[in-house]
Amino acid sequence: MTEDRRRPTLWLVLGVAILVATHWLDRWGVASLAIPSANDRDWGRLLRVMGFAPTWLVVSAILWLEARGQSAESAAALRTTAVAIIAAVALGGLGAEALKLLVRRERPDPTIATYVFRPFAVDPWSTRRLGFPSSHAAVAFAGASALAFRFRKAAPILLGLAAGCGLTRVFAGAHFLSDVAGAGVFGSAAGWWVAGRFERRRARLSFSP
Question: 6: which of 12, 68, 127, 161 lies 20 to 30 Å off by Cα?
Answer without folding.
Answer: 161
